Amino acid sequence: MINILANDGISQAGIDALTEKGFKVITEKVAQEDLINAINTKKYEVLLVRSATTVRKDLIDSCPHLKLVGRGGVGMDNIDVEYAKEKGINVINTPAASSSSVAELVFAHLFGMVRFLFDSNRQMPMVGDADFKSLKKSYANGRELSGKTLGIIGFGRIGQEVAKRAIGLGMKVIAHDKFIEEANITLDFFNGDKKSFTIETESLKEVLKNSDFITIHVPKIGNKSVIGAEEIGMMKTGAGIVNTSRGGVIDETALMFALDKEKLAYAGLDVFDNEPNPSIHICMHNAISLTPHIGAATLEAQDRIGTELADQISSHFSK
Ligand code: NAD
Question: Domains in the chain, start-ordered, CATH in brackets?
Answer without folding.
Answer: 3-94+299-317 (3.40.50.720), 99-290 (3.40.50.720)
